[in-house]
# Entry
Amino acid sequence: MRTQDLDHQLEFLAETSGFIKSLTANLTETELTLKPSGRDFSCLEQVCHLRDIEREGYSGRIQRILKEVEPLLPNIDGDQLAIERNYNSQNLKAALDEFASARKRNLEIVRSASTDALTRTAILEDVGTITFEHLIIMMYEHDQEHRQQLSNLTTRFKARVEGLSSQAELK
# Structure
C-alpha cells in the first residue's frame, strides 16, 4: 500500500507538464529565452533541462534501481547540458511534449512497481545510498524547484505587461 504522501507526490509529478504548458502558453520568444541572470535558466532552458533530466536521468535510474542490485547511478550536470545543447535555441513545444511523454512513461513504471520496490537501494553519485522511494522524492523536489522558478519568471513577465497596460491607459 502506498502512502498518502507518495500518492500526492506522484500526482504532482503527473501534473508538472500541464502546469508548465499553462505557464508558458502566452510567452513571447524573447520571454521564453530571457535569462534572469547569468547562471539562472530561462523558461525554455528550464523545460529543456526537465526533459533531459527526465529522459537521461530519471528514466535510467528508475529502470536500473528496479532491475539491478544496488546499481551505481551517475550524476548529470544539468548546467553543462544546457551549454552543450544550446537549450535557448530549441523548440518549446517539442521539448515540453518530449518531457511529458518521458514523464508519463516513468510514472507508469513507478505506479506499477510493487510496494516492496520502494525500499530497493542504489548509489547515486555525489549523493550516496538512496532508496527507490527517495528517488521519487528527489523527482518531486526537483519539480517543485523548477515549477517555482518558472512561476517566478512568468509572474515577472505578467507584472511587466500589466504595468505597461496601466501606463498606456494613463496616457
Observations:
- Residues 164-171 have pLDDT under 50 and may be disordered.
- The chain has one domain: 4-139.
